[in-house]
Amino acid sequence: MANFSLPKIQLSWDKGVVLFLVLAIFIGSFSSEYFATASNLSFVIASIAEIAIIATAMTYLIIAGEIDLSVASMMSLSSASIGFAFREGLPFEIAILIGLAVGLAAGLFNGILVTFFGLPSLAVTIATLALYRGLCWVLLENKPVNQLPEFWISLGFRNIPNTFLPWSTIPLVILAAAAWVVLHHTKTGRWVFAIGINPEAAKFSGVPVNRVKLGLFAYSGLMSGVAGVIYTLRFASASPDGGVGYELSVIAAVLFGGVAIAGGVGTMWGVLAAVVSLGVMRSGLQLVGFSANALLIVSGGLLLISVILPKVTEFVRIRNSRASTPKIKQKNEEKKYE
User: Fold this and answer.
1) How far apart are CA 168 and CA 212, in angstroms?
2) Helix 38-63 to helix 169-185 angle, to the nearest 10 degrees?
3) Most CB within 10 Å of its CB: which of 50, 156, 165, 267?
4) Could you give the CA distance from residue 188 to residue 73 in angstroms, rounded to a whole number?
């Protein structure tokens, strides 16, 4: 009689995040009658757009063994620059270009300090987090710019005609797809993984390590600038205190999506699934009455889980492999004398 066996299914961390997302949607649908409505789904997508766009860049940086804690401040600085330029009489389209350029310049500044001066990215971006946030207050002087063009504001809070999708879905999908292709299907993506695994070995293999890292920090600044534009349009305002705490949500999503904090490991689709999971959880908790402080606790808890759980599973795997080694050796010895 023939023996049939089911194929083994290997559940990686990023696949587990997708299952977690499905479970979160399932629970949210049953926890509130308003969860699965078109208006709420539109709200969820709009609320994660900035975080998702910045997370695509943060994914590259953490895989490469670096980090950028100033992303929320760069987003806010981009938004403040848009408001300042428009208040000074420049056309809003030019103001948007200025905001993108400011984000790019801020990211380049971070990259120069890390690559040319050899400073640790953690220390650099903690410093520029405060620096860029201070520049927001210098530009706007605690005077938010609220009188923005109606056409551009409508793109921030209205949906694509005949759909429940906000207009921010378009740049989000384009940028996420491009980030996924480059990371997983190009030489640049392979370089990023190589740098995260071993930067010295990557350098001896011909990878331009410093140039790649500089480009990644510039990319982080540019994506923060794009997020700043979307943030400004979504709230119809440019203020110096925008996006406070967003860096925690971005890093929590990236690590929860399966990117190793030590670098060299991660997938873009796992990160995007984690971003959507965070948005779904936040929406579900808000609908059942949780406060904003509870949402911060959830983000912090997921961040801890993302760091601790992979270490625990790795420890268990190594321990189990060591425990099974003597048995394998014993079986090999028995085969020798058969």
Assistant:
1) 28
2) 30
3) 50
4) 27
DSSP state letter for 12: -
Provide the terminal-to-terminal Cα distance of the chain, rounded to the nearest Å: 28
Q: What percent of the chain has pLDDT over 90?
A: 68
Asked if 252 contacts 49 with a C-beta cutoff of 8 angstroms, the reply is no
The answer to whether the beta carbons of residues 68 and 217 sit under 8 Å apart is yes
Ramachandran sector of residue 276 (left: φ over 0; alpha: ψ -120 to 50; beta: rest) = alpha
* pTM (two decimals): 0.89
Distance CA 168, CA 121 (A): 30
Neighbour tally for 158: CB within 10 Å: 11
When pLDDT is cut at 50, 70 and 90, the band that residue 296 belongs to is confident
The residues facing 166 across adjacent strands are 159
* Separation of CA 149 from chain center: 29
SS3 102: helix
